[in-house]
Amino acid sequence: MVQVTVRASDALSREGLASFLDASPGITVVDGDAAVPGGVLVVCCERLSAEVIAMLRLSAAETGAPVVLVVHDFTEADLVIAVECRVVAVLPRAAVSPERLAHSVVAAAAGGGVLPSNLVGELLRHLERVHREVLAPRGQNAAGLTPREVDVLRLMADGLDTNEIADALSYSQRTVKNVIYSMTNRLQLRNRSHAVAYAVRTGMI
User: Which intervals hold domain HTH luxR-type (predicted)?
Assistant: First the structure.
């Protein structure tokens, strides 16, 4: 059962969205303004104003709940801020239906997202700009790893120790240790096993 908290700029919109969700199997609307742990927050507003952004940021900090945003006026420029505030689905207010709202809530609860096609394109363009302007000049990829770190991680995943990795890559043992230390410290990884798990999870090895 997905627990949903609904917040809206007016009582009529809140009651309307709550009734849509109450009619959907597997979804229950909870009282109050704060999202419950493991739940989804549905926010309805005219636009992504400073007040709405502040509320979303507070919610993200306190609960980390994914947000389904039902909005009247939403531009591509709003997208990056929305994503930073844990918004994973954006629905145009005029096009909301019980089915679309329920689908977005279930997707959000499962770790997915729902965005209009034009916003998906803008998000991809933004990620490309981040890679080109921020990561690439530092020799990093989207996972925050340099090519040298990826090489070391792949050999670690194959079970090689520091000496064997150094031999395979023609590095000194000190260099290998420095690479591992720099990577685990920067990415806040606990140890070598955690580093390998991170690389597997991000698809780097």
Answer: 138-203
